[in-house]
Write a structure and sequence with these properties.
Chain lengths: 242, 132
């Protein structure tokens, strides 16, 4: 193939689904180191879901909205800087990719819920981690209880949960789920000029996970649910690492 | 002669999905878990088409693609970033399928490159050929 080929033409040829504009716009704004906070605040204030998520990120210790010390988008941006906007920009494509994967591979409708509404993970659960590095550095964590992981793996592999006894197959399916969602969000970051590389996923059993705090960066916790399956996605990010 | 298809992906889950998608068709599926194993399998099995992941340990799919000659390749990856897609297209990839995908999409794309024939009811199931 010769030079001069463009992405729009390739997207049509390969049948790519269009990317969500709001997520791309926010990522592009964040990727500019001279971004105007007012401009970012306008984008977030127009989207009630983004606004709610930003305030949750800006009040990590609050149990509910009544306990919020940071109450406006502008305050959140001033106090937390671009790190928290970056995790918002990254969280959207992650959640969309996860939702799309469930719809496509399992025919299940996954909905985003407030993490406080989700069932807490008790005892051993599956923890998948992907580290990414480059102009933005951080981790994506995917957590779920064993029954959810088994149900997901069985659904993807076209088996019943009872038939699936191999723990490695359950871990591999969880790792691939993490791979798919992280690959999609990496594309979004790279398109905005925030080039980064992904490391292969690591999946293990855990019983004492705590989302690490990131100095100067942002942390977001998301929860998603379909039926009895509950998933937790945690994202940590530090912008402009190199 | 059945069509020979090589699936190169570090995820066993994806290789199983590819195998399940192709089960109704008269084809032989070979598997490899990274680019290095993929090159060995491609030289030995001489597949009619390769389904290739991008991010893999040992050797990634883009490196493997640069070392392949004249075998049609469909990239099967979650990464659809602009620069990545353009770079891979310039290396001569025949098609690109973004994960997550439906099995029908995979069959449709493979069927555009090689002629997939449905198995006759009495035909035995083709067993996967291990890479090593």
């Amino acid at each position: 193939m010769q030079g001069g080929v463009n992405y729009q033409e390739l997207s049509r040829r390969y049948g790519f689904a269009p990317k969500p504009e709001s997520a791309s716009r926010l990522t592009q704004l964040v990727s500019r180191q001279d971004s105007d906070l007012d401009e970012i605040a306008k984008v977030i204030n127009k989207d009630p879901v983004l606004r709610k998520r930003l305030l949750r990120v800006a009040n990590p210790d609050a149990e509910n909205e009544i306990e919020y010390a940071v109450e406006t988008v502008e305050d959140a941006l001033m106090r937390n800087g671009m790190g928290c906007v970056l995790v918002l920009a990254m969280g959207t494509p992650l959640a969309l990719a996860l939702t799309k994967t469930f719809q496509t591979m399992l025919s299940l409708k996954l909905e985003m819920i407030d993490p406080s509404e989700a069932e807490c993970l008790q005892g051993d659960h599956l923890l998948g981690t992907i580290h990414f590095s480059g102009k933005v550095e951080g981790e994506v964590y995917l957590r779920m209880n064993i029954a959810s992981a088994r149900a997901i793996a069985a659904g993807i592999l076209g088996m019943s949960p009872e038939e699936l006894t191999d723990t490695n197959e359950i871990k591999d399916a969880a790792g691939e789920l993490l791979n798919i969602m992280t690959g999609n969000f990496k594309s979004n970051l790279c398109d905005a000029g925030l080039d980064c590389r992904l490391q292969p996923p690591e999946v293990k059993l855990s019983n004492n996970f705590h989302t690490p705090s990131v100095a100067g960066g942002g942390v977001e916790r998301m929860a998603l649910r379909t039926g009895k399956i509950h998933l937790f996605v945690d994202v940590t990010a530090n912008p402009w690492n190199d | 002669m059945p069509i020979k298809i090589l699936s190169v992906d570090d995820s066993r889950t994806i290789r199983l999905i590819v195998g399940r998608s192709l089960r109704p068709y008269d084809c032989i599926l070979c598997e490899a878990a990274n680019g290095e194993e993929g090159l060995v399998a491609a030289a030995r099995e001489k597949p009619d088409i390769i389904l290739l992941d991008v991010t893999m340990p040992v050797m990634d799919g883009v490196t493997m693609l640069t070392k392949l000659k004249s075998i049609p390749v469909i990239m099967l990856t979650a990464e659809s970033g602009r620069d990545n897609v353009i770079h891979i297209a310039r290396l001569g990839v025949r098609d690109y399928l973004v994960k997550p995908f439906k099995e029908e999409q995979l069959i449709d794309k493979v069927g555009r490159i090689v002629q997939l024939k449905r198995k006759e009811v009495s035909a035995p199931t083709a067993a996967p050929v291990p890479a090593v």
